[in-house]
Design goal:
Order of helices and strands: HEEEHEE
Number of helices: 2
Mean pLDDT: 96
Radius of gyration: 14 Å
Structural class: alpha+beta
Bound molecules: guanosine-5'-monophosphate
Number of strands: 5
CATH class: Alpha Beta
Helix content: 10-25%
CATH architecture: 2-Layer Sandwich
Largest sheet: 5 strands, antiparallel
Number of domains: 1
Strand content: 15-25%
Distance between the termini: 23 Å
Shape: globular
CATH topology: HIT family, subunit A
Strand order of the largest sheet: 1-2-3-5-4
């Protein structure tokens, strides 16, 4: 498991690599996914380096709630009035590739179920 301090997302938070940032506050940042899977594909991440959802602790409850409310705010800002999908890939079987917790917002088209 890679150290979340060293991920590409930590570098985006530190402005060491560019990203199209659409929202930022003291706890979270949101930016466009570099390889979009839908007309709108945004990522919401905590500034705190939590590697994955299963590493979150009960004392992180305020941050975790904040991330969900940030998803709502960013989706509204992106104009996703007809709905959207929120995805948290977790660990190897979850298909996670970047080990800094992130919430995908996918929208702008109708989603299918079940996902692959
Ligand atoms: P995961 O597979 O871990 O759930 O999602 C990681 C996401 O990060 C992928 O959708 C991938 O396209 C995106 N991603 C990977 N590297 C970068 C990057 O350097 N910049 C941005 N904006 N997105 C990235």
């Amino acid at each position: 498991m890679s150290n979340p301090q060293d991920t590409i997302f930590a570098k985006i938070i530190r402005r060491e690599i560019p990203a199209e940032i659409v929202y930022e506050d003291e706890l979270a940042i949101a930016f466009k996914d570099v390889n979009p899977q839908a007309p709108v594909h945004l990522l919401v991440i905590p500034k705190q380096p939590i590697a994955m959802l299963s590493d979150a602790e009960s004392e992180d409850h305020r941050l975790m709630g904040h991330l969900l409310l940030t998803v709502k705010r960013v989706a509204e800002q992106a104009g996703l009035t007809n709905g959207y999908r929120v995805v948290i890939n977790t660990g190897e079987d979850g298909g996670q590739t970047v080990y800094h917790l992130h919430l995908h917002i996918l929208g702008g088209r109708s989603m299918q179920w079940p996902p692959g």
